[in-house]
Predict the structure.
Amino acid sequence: MTVSDAARPGPAKPAAERPPVLEARLLQKRYGNLAALDKVSLALYPGEVVALLGDNGAGKSTLVKALSGALPIDAGDILFEGAKVASWNPKTAQRYGVATAWQDLALDTTCDIASNFFLGRELVRGRFLRSLAPLNRTAMRQEVERVMGDMGIRVDRMVGQPVARLSGGQRQSVAIAKASHWSDRVLFMDEPTAALGVRQSAMVLDLAKGIADSGSAVVIISHAIPQVLEHADRVVVLRHGRKVLDCDRADTTPDKVVAWMLGMEAT
Ligand SMILES: Nc1ncnc2c1ncn2[C@@H]1O[C@H](COP(=O)(O)OP(=O)(O)O)[C@@H](O)[C@H]1O
Ligand SMILES: [Mg+2]
C-alpha cells in the first residue's frame, strides 16, 4: 500500500478568501478547578491542514472532542458555515460531515478492510447506504479499492486480508480513509502518527494533505513537530487550555513553536 502524488488535485487555495467551515468561539471547558479550555476560539477553513500542537495536558484532545461533538462544553459557541449550531453532538457533527479518525483501535482487526470501511454506518443518513443492502462482498471490496485508490492508497490484495495483517501505517490509513470518505467537510486526527515510524508517519501525513487538497479542513494533533509542520498550512498552539499561537506555517519555525508550547515566548 503506497501513497502517491497522482491523486492530488493540486495545492489548496488561500484559506482567508473563504468563510470558515467550522468555527469555535470562546469555548470553555472545566474539570473541577482546571480550565481544560479557556476561551479558545478557532476557525477552520476548507482545504487547509492545521497542526494543533501543545504540551501534554494543553487541551488539544479536549478541543478536538468539543469540535467533533463528542464532549459537551460549558460555554462558547460552535458555528457551521457561519451559523450557530444549537446542539453539537456526534450525530449532528456526522450529519454535517465532521469526523474524527480514531486510532486503529476503532477498527475490528479480525475483519477485512472492506468490512471495516462499512462497519457502523447504519446510523448515518448516507450517500449510497440505501443501495448498499444488495451489495455483495466483491462489490464492497471494489468500492473500497476505488475510494482508497482515489485517495492515492493502493490496497492491492490487502483489501481482503484481516486488518490484523496490515502495518500500523496501513491501518491508520484505512481509519483515515474511512473517516474522510464518510465525512467530507472537517477531519480531526488526534495523534495519528503516535505509534508509527518516520516513513509510515509520512504516509499518513501525505494522506492528510491529499484529503485537504480535495476540500476538507484537516486538523492534526502530533508530537512530531518538524514532520507535522512540513505538512501543515497553519499552526495552532495551546498551552494550559489557552490558544497562544495561531499563524501561517510560513510565519513560524519548529523552534519557535516549541518555545510557545513551553511558555518561553511572551504571550
Ligand atoms: N475527563 C477528564 N476529567 C478530568 N480532567 C480531564 C479529563 N480530560 C482531560 N482532563 C484534563 O484536561 C487537561 C487537558 O487534557 P487534554 O485535552 O487531554 O490534553 P492534551 O490532549 O493536550 O494532552 C489535562 O490537564 C487533563 O488532565
Ligand atoms: Mg491528547
Notes: The CA atoms of residues 97 and 184 lie 5 Å apart. The helical segments are 60-67, 90-95, 113-118, 137-150, 168-182, 198-213, 225-230, 254-262. The first helix runs from residue 60 to 67.
